[in-house]
Amino acid sequence: MVQTAQHSVPGESPLAVHGKCNHPRVRQVLLDLSRGLIAVDQGHGDIHDYHIRLKPEHFEARYNLALALEAQGNVDQAIEYFRKTVELRPDHAMAQARLGMALCSKGAIQEGLAPLSRAVDLDPANIEARYHLAVNLARVNQHNRAISHFLQVLRLNPGNTNALMSLATSYAQTNQIDKALSSLEEALQIAKSAGDQKLIDLIAKQIKLCRQRIGTGKTGR
């Protein structure tokens, strides 16, 4: 069931409620409701009482509902709808990616890696899917695989400071401290160009730690 902070009046259509709602994914679900893409029962005339029953064959309605549920923090419910979307369209890269990301966010990293990997196979240029695959590979200490994907993210998006910093962490965890420093210094230059003082301070601390490890000879994990 999708909930929004907007209340309708008795008899008010989903399209009318849509005009009051600010969240883009919830707005899309309400548009689907108004277009008949999602079959609903109107309980007491309030959007909170709509019991959404999706037409089994309609992929976009399921996918948009999953995104809306996830945006509201209903991740467990969103996962179930993401599962249904990939059953309908196993070749849909973003549905696979969103399922993987949602699973990983709940701590089911090993399970989430499979759809994330599938998403990257389907769409090698999908930066979001590849970045999250790399991050979660690193979370389970598969740093060499993570490094490969972080490098590919940076080929697609060279100025990605998050990827550079995460890459540095994986380099450090595999005792490649010089490469870690190089990645951090590149990220630092980008942060300085952007004038992001918080990010500059954060990267500078990480660089200091890397240099301390080199100075003390503590390059192991």
C-alpha termini separation: 46 Å
Q: How are helices and strands ordered from N to C? A: HHEEHHHHHHHHH
If helices are DSSP runs of H or I spanning 4 or more residues, what is the number of helices? 11
Low-confidence stretches: 1-20, 39-52
Class derived from helix and strand content: mainly alpha
What is the number of E strands?
2
**Most strands sheet:** 2 strands, antiparallel
Strand order of the largest sheet: 1-2
Gross morphology:
elongated
Helix content: 55-70%
User: For the residues shown, what is the average pLDDT?
Assistant: 82
User: Radius of gyration, rounded?
Assistant: 22 Å
Strand content: under 5%
What oligomeric state is this?
Answer: single chain
Describe the structure in your own words.
- With 221 residues, the protein is mainly α.
- It has a domain at 1-89.
- Helices cover 67% and strands 4% of the residues.
- It has helices at 14-18, 24-35, 59-71, 75-88, 93-105, 109-122, 127-139, 143-156, 161-173, 177-194, 197-216, and strands spanning 38-41, 51-54.
- Strands 1-2 form a two-stranded antiparallel sheet.
- Mean pLDDT is 82; it is low at 1-20 and 39-52.
